[in-house]
Amino acid sequence: MGYRSTMLLVNPRSEDATVTRLEFFGNNGAPLALPIAGELRTSVNLMWPAKGVAHFHTDGISSEMKVGWISVTSPDPIFGSAIFQTRYQDRIISEAGVADAPLSTHLISPMESLGSTHSGIAICNPNAVGVTITLNLRSPSGALAATASFDLPPLGHAARFFTRWFPAGFEEFTGTLEVISPAPVSAVAMRYDNPLMNVFATLPVAIIPETRALLR
């Protein structure tokens, strides 16, 4: 069984899109070479017409799993989605779509580890400097259950089940995971709910808005 990622990008404008650059980065922030159209690529440039869609996918033929994130840079307003698939030979076992993830310094997502259910989150740092990520695990009532932190290098990425960060006492847990960063980061969350861990769904990652005191 292997994984394959697909990107769908839409140009909503009435003019043709100019060059949009997709760059692939690994966990350590270094360029990540992915098999695309029979060759290893660390980036792709795309152009497509007004109201059109650009579509590409990794070949899914690597002998080992490639893990990282994609940076999309465009001078024009565009929107898109990623699709993650698990595949066995030519058959798709499962897939889940992920919308483009907004940047923020304060994020939150539901998490649970009940029976065969396991939730995780992937966080990327698009900044040129490293950041220290603070994770607050909260109960369904919002009460703080545990806190952890880790360093994420420039252009780095980390993807784990939340129980990897909180390994003791949360084998049967439901609640939320709060992500706090000194610089804007992006995150995607996923949920597995079968013993074989090959069927998954995406979870919402919400931005927690800043609060400012009003001085009178």
Structure, described:
- The protein has two domains: 2-99, Immunoglobulin-like (Sandwich); 104-207, Sandwich (Hypothetical Protein Tm1070, Chain: A).
- 2% of the residues lie in helices and 57% in strands.
- The protein has one helix and 17 strands.
- The chain has one helix spanning 162-165, and strands spanning 2-10, 20-26, 34-36, 39-41, 43-46, 53-57, 68-73, 79-88, 91-99, 104-113, 117-124, 131-138, 144-152, 157-161, 173-193, 200-203, 206-207.
- Strands 10, 11, 12, 13, 14, 15, 16 and 17 form an eight-stranded antiparallel sheet that branches.
- A hairpin with a 2-residue loop joins β8 and β9 (91-99).
- The mean pLDDT is 90.
- What count of domains describes the coordinates? 2
- State the secondary-structure class: mainly beta
What is the H level of CATH, i.e. the homologous superfamily of the largest domain? TM1070-like
- Total count of strands: 17
Radius of gyration: 18 Å
Concise account of the structure shown:
With 216 residues, this protein is an all-beta fold.
Write the layout of secondary structure elements.
Elements (H helix, E strand, L loop, with lengths): L1 E9 L9 E7 L7 E3 L2 E3 L1 E4 L6 E5 L10 E6 L5 E10 L2 E9 L4 E10 L3 E8 L6 E8 L5 E9 L4 E5 H4 L7 E21 L6 E4 L2 E2 L9
Antiparallel strand pairs: 1-6, 1-8, 2-5, 2-7, 3-4, 8-9, 10-15, 10-17, 11-14, 11-15, 12-13, 12-15, 15-16
